[in-house]
Amino acid sequence: MIEITEVTAGSPADRAGIRAGDCLISVSGTEIHDVLDYRFAITEKHLDVRVFREGEAVEFAVRKGEYEDLGLGFATALMDEKRTCGNHCIFCFIDQNPKGMRQTIYFKDDDARLSFLQGSYITLTNLTDEDVDRIIRMHLSVNVSVQTTEPDLRNQMLGNKKAGESLKYLWKMAEAGVSMNCQIVLCPTWNDGDHLHKTLADLFSMVPAVESIAVVPFGATKHRQHLCPIPCFTQETARAAVEQIEAVQRWSLGANGRRIVYASDELYLLAGLPLPEDEAYEGYPQYENGVGMLRYLMNEFYDALEDAEYDGDARFLTIATGTAAAPFLEKMMRDLEAKFPAVHCQVIPVLNDFYGHTVTVAGLLTGQDLLAQLRGRELGSAVLLSETCLRHDDVFLDDMTREELEEALGVRVIKNAVDGYVLLDTVLGYAEGHL
User: Fold this and answer.
1) 22: domain range?
2) Would you state the pLDDT for residue 434?
């Protein structure tokens, strides 16, 4: 039973007489253990909701619109505890954090429910036969972090003797038609080359259940002491990986009519190769995995710039970002300035001293690095940061707040969406309070 902590006023549950403090037992005969059971059970218009109240079971007939929410609130979004990761992956970024950070940063989840609800990736090692049967019965879609389809190698890479055996769930879900997006974290000398070829061959044999595959490079921080040695990508090894992936794409275009597998933006940047054009991303199915994010941002920005008008006063502001995206943003801002000479937006690439200079993405910048490298510079009316640096309640990874950074710099700090239209509007002063 799961305690109901809140009932929305005027909701179907409220009208039926369900109250906060009741404990949910079942919906139309389906026992409720977590959010997946709950979501699956409440889709119908007519429901029989059984709760435990004051020592006895009470049943309520609920009438609602199809797919309308019941209006019940629970203590946690999962209506249960998160499942923690039991792996010891050789490439795990969480293990590469320094000591002394807030506890939530060290939490590793490996939960199929979060895969369905939030798009996080699971390794399958936490699943049971019953879990997989439920995924199939509910026609859920899942995101799977595969790494390799070779059982022994997967055991080594995930540091879990169940990792290879759990691949059986990948095949079972594929045979049942479960929609899956897959991820391969590519580690030089471990799962690249011939190993990558086999993994891709196995995953392509599961198409169309496997809808897309992202290949993302292993990322190392300077805090890898006492962890498994993994070589960093060189331009040569990154280029070899991209060429291998693009060869598979060309084959897949002929065999399947689409590419299915994609290299992440970071892999192209490490290889020193230009990003693919828009059509190569085929609707950006792996956008959240850093596949095509820069291309999409540029497309939006230039679409907006083409139609934009500006006849306001002179403006000067700053974008602070990671070293990976800085050259792209620099070109975008210079093209903006060519159209609107009164507007100047400088781009400052910020080196990641906290994690090490091999970490180049904006989302892993800390407040202390931003402060150290921006303090004392002429910044204009505001500093724009990617919202990816401030995902946790406007707090950076090192616990500095956005307000503290603003106070220390003496200039407004704007958390900007990863959206080319919003970026242009902010730079031109049409958003964020008309700076």
Assistant:
1) 2-74
2) 42
